[in-house]
Amino acid sequence: MKRSLSAFPLALALFLGVALTIGAPQFAGAQKKDDPVLARVNGVEIRQSDLDIAEADVGPSLQVQEPNARKEALLAYMIDLTALAQAAAKQKLDAASDFEQRMAYAKNKVLMEALLGDLAKKASTDAEMKKLYDESVAKTQPEEEVRARHILVKTEKEAQDVLAKLKGGADFEKLAREISTDPSAKTNGGDLEYFTKGQMVAEFSDAAFKLTKGQISQPVKTQFGFHVIKVEDKRMKPVPKFEDVKDQVQAFVVRKAQAEVVMKVRSEAKIENLLKKEAPQAPAKAEPKKK
Fold it and tell me: What is the pTM for the complete model shown?
């Protein structure tokens, strides 16, 4: 029945939509002091710092989660990578016409990630995160929430039968577990927890928000079927605590800072976008000569 979920104020949600154009890259950074050699391939050392770089690059695609197995998988990847690179060099594939171009691209990408990664560390201070949180809370309008249970059935007649059983003393939660066609009702007794008006389909929300605490609705028709709704509680939506949304706030702060830097660098660079140059206009038709 829920149309959408909102974990944080609208101000932050709107900002996220803009900021998502720039990610928060993982960058290994400077080599660690404790950087043991983990393997050698034809004399070439593979260190822990190499695995850290590999983790940032291919780690998200690894299915292995157990730390030791994950480390072994990354090391196997680095061994293969090193051995194959050596084999490619023996075949002089680094002399290919596009090799330098590919290397330049790889270097630019690593430098970009280094810049954005460094910026992420500098931007995500507690002061900046708390500032964004406070600004978002200040912009948040008070909003009513309802906590309700429902029993969903296919026909209006079935819904009227449900009402009759409830009037006869049947327990709402038990009845929801037994007959509701909402699959989650089998485990939660039809409990939808707290929701705002915009989080449910209109017909359901209109009915639920008109009820008082403890009141049960008449059958309500939606695209899902017929509902019998019981309001368990009403309240004003509480503002989430800073500690509960700190990770989200950090992501917003980082992406905002990165987006600003990207726009600044782009505006200061001398850019010639030849793809966007206007297409040549068709020559004007010659007018017929007057007799």
Answer: 0.57
